[in-house]
Amino acid sequence: MKNLSSSEIRQMYLDFFKSKGHTIMPSASLVPVDDPTLLWINSGVATMKNYFNGSVVPKNPRMTSSQKSIRTNDIENVGRTARHHTLFEMLGNFSVGDYFKDEAIEWAWELLTSDKWFGWDPDKLYMTVYPKDDAAKKRWEEVGVAPDHIVEQEDNFWDIGEGPSGPDSEIFYDRGQSFNNLADDDPENYPGGENERYLEIWNIVFSQFNHEPDGSYKPLPRKNIDTGMGLERVVSVFQNAKTNFETDLFLPMIHATESYSDGKKYGQDPKLDVSFKVIADHSRAITFAIGDGALPSNEGRGYVIRRLIRRAVVNGQKLGIQGAFLYKLVPVVGEAMKAYYPEVLQNSDYIAQVVKSEEDRFNETLNDGLNLLNSLIEETKKNGQSEIDGAEAFKLYDTYGFPVELTREYAFDENIKVDEEGFKAEMKKQRDRARKARNADNSMGVQSDVLVGVKSPSEYVGYTQLEVENAKITDIVADGALTDATEGEVAQVIFDKTPFYAEMGGQVADKGNVLDENGNLIATVEDVQHAPNGQNIHTLKLHRGIKVGDQMTLKVDAHFHSKVEKNHTATHLLDQALRNVFGEHTQQAGSLVEPNYLRFDFTHFGQVTEEDLAKVEAIVNEKIFEEIPVTTTVTDQATGKKMGAIALFSDKYGDQVRVVSIGDFSIEFCGGTHVKNTNELGLFKITSETGIGAGTRRIEAVTAGEAYEYLEKHDQLLTNAAATLKSQKVEDVPSKIQQLQEDLKNMSNKADGLEAKLASQQAGAIFDNVQDVNGKKLITGVVQVSSMDQLRQLADTWRQKSLSDVLVLGAEVGEKANLIVAVSDDTIKAGVKAGDMIKAISPQINGGGGGRPNLAQAGGKKPAGLQDAMTEAAKWLSNLN
């Protein structure tokens, strides 16, 4: 067996398929782009959906990748088994309608057994096949697999419902008898069974059918290959590791964790080994997830990160680690993965800052929460029960931030369960959003072939001209099908050349007209998108019939186009200004460029102050006033990156890229249209800034004419305010407002004083009216006050003077009724509680309330019932035993 590191194994796989004509695709961000069906990228094929469903035609139908992925549906098993992980890498090779079963099997065997590549012993390899897939079985035998190493498996058919499906072939590596955890005659002791000896390392899916809505299976127009090889498993074979955790992918984090513990070592105690594994696994997942822009929160993927951090912290406690430590593992992860993911180490300071902030937040309540949980477990055992009450589990979550999964896992170690239904009843809003159905998420979608075969060349010339004559129609789609001509009202059309920009990168498509040779209107352009093979396809509202071969004049709405250009250039200035103010970790998380405004989403951990926004706005306007030329260079990606161009995770770039430079201030990869000089923007004004999710914020802004209109509108508001305040100059408005505030405050203080005096006078009369009820002294009364605060002040006065055992006061405030009940300390000992009394009397005002034994309050919608509430209070007290 070759002695290879994980980085060498990953690169060997990619190099092998590159030698077979595959394009190496970069590992995409863990945060899915434009795919609401996925919480995380959870496999290699998840990034290939658009290619497999036909919405985009890849430049090369052969692709290979090592894709970082996250799955959390088996999170409780992480650390307890040899191969469960949250973050893992999936090596894969893909064919979109190109090669199929013969080549996929041949190349798999070559990679695994050739001395030039993996060089594994063929006798150690076993293949499973679908019983009806004779072609796969035959091909495995042809490449050299012994017949007794091919196992038929009835469930070797990849089918996730409607969409592509087909047989698959799994490859197992025999780790030898020393790994065997079953008896020789155990029915699971075979390649493909549930055992430790035969390790599944690769799955090859032969996607050849479409599962139709009626349940039938029809051959796909383009057969595909989708494979997945778990890097962690392959590394464990090469490095002869008992589990995936004893490899160079996890051991650096495990050894670092040992140094933070109170002398505990990995391998000494199986129970503690679980904690070491959990920490090593979770530190990788959170580091990569945060590095890709996700942040801890209470929902969605942010909840997954929070849960992983807290699970790791709790396991750190089990190892005797006090205080924050997980953040220290971030650079360790970065160092271990730098060969293929150098950006993790580059961003490790920012990632560590986010992790430490979350750790500190959790550690503030962790010890109290653990003490409470341990008490609950002991009390449950003491009472002879086997289940923690659901309400108590919710209290742990709500008060101490313990996800129920942690409570369940901690209790599981003590053979105690959690009342899951009771917990759900207490917490309807929070659910385990991290659990996702694995197979459904991997769906490639149903293929659509209407435009896949359309390869007519089409040239976009809109960077330099907005009107084109003699543009010829090459393809027409009407009513969902290709046609040579149409008389309909709407059609999708491809021209051999076009000045119309297709929507991309947040920039909206151009609008405009299609004219005949005499300048007569033929159609209006409603939308422009990219066809699967990259052409600009125009959605036309037709005014007359068209046919393939017609030549027309295409004319872009220049005013619309110009306004969009201005706002697009402004997003580039804004992007760099945000980095200057908040730091290089700030990344674009989405944008929308319309003619009337721009929207820019960005990642930022923390609040954005008015002062921050003012700095950003000032920087952008400074660059506008500097009249900086905006230039474009077409080059290859490598050269563009050397120029310092910023690339977005969410965008896919071709071999040739456009680098848009605004002097030396901003350099970005961008396919959009831009102004020639920043002075064309005129002015930039931020109109709003909000948070739209965990660690993601949104700025909306305007430029040029819209910016002037925005400022003019606010100037008019200020002028109107000056007139209302009878201020001769607008500049005097702030001082006028300040004077009004001071006058209002003085008047409010006087009013409060008068109200307090009135309340005191009323209290004097009410406090003298003491009833004797059931051996207790009771004071009741309805008073005239302006707030519940004043009722509480009266209660404080009553308590200081010890005027009775129980006080009940009511007041009509606005259109609502307020009640307050106060009980002396000695009377509480006799069984009288303010909270019980308030619940008994508040129905008289159509309300409800609660509080502590010594003080409770309630509000209601029926002021007319206040006197009845006083009567009910006396009745309740008289009936109290």
Helix content: 25-40%
Number of domains: 5
Briefly note the structural class of the backbone. Answer: alpha+beta
Low-confidence stretches: 429-447
Task: Supply the CATH class of the largest domain.
Answer: Alpha Beta
CATH topology of the largest domain: BirA Bifunctional Protein, domain 2
Measured between the Cα atoms of the first and last residue, the distance is 84 Å
CATH-level-2 architecture of the largest domain: 2-Layer Sandwich
Overall geometric form = globular
User: What's the alpha carbon Rg, rounded to whole Å?
Assistant: 35 Å
CATH superfamily of the largest domain: Bira Bifunctional Protein, Domain 2
β-strand number: 35
How would you characterize the overall build of this protein?
It is globular, with a radius of gyration of 35 Å. It has 24 helices and 35 strands. A hairpin with a 2-residue loop joins strand 28 and strand 29. Helix 3 (101-113) packs parallel to helix 4. The termini are far apart. With 881 residues, the protein is α+β, with helices and mostly antiparallel strands. Residues 429-447 have low confidence and may be disordered. Strands 1, 2, 3, 4, 5, 6, 7, 8 and 9 form a 9-stranded mixed sheet that branches. A 6-stranded antiparallel beta barrel has the order 13-16-20-19-18-22. The protein has 5 domains: 6-244, BirA Bifunctional Protein, domain 2 (2-Layer Sandwich); 278-430, no CATH class; 459-469 and 476-494 and 513-551, no CATH class; 561-712, Threonyl-trna Synthetase, Chain A, domain 2 (Threonyl-tRNA Synthetase, Chain A, domain 2, 2-Layer Sandwich); 764-878, Diaminopimelate Epimerase, Chain A, domain 1 (Roll).
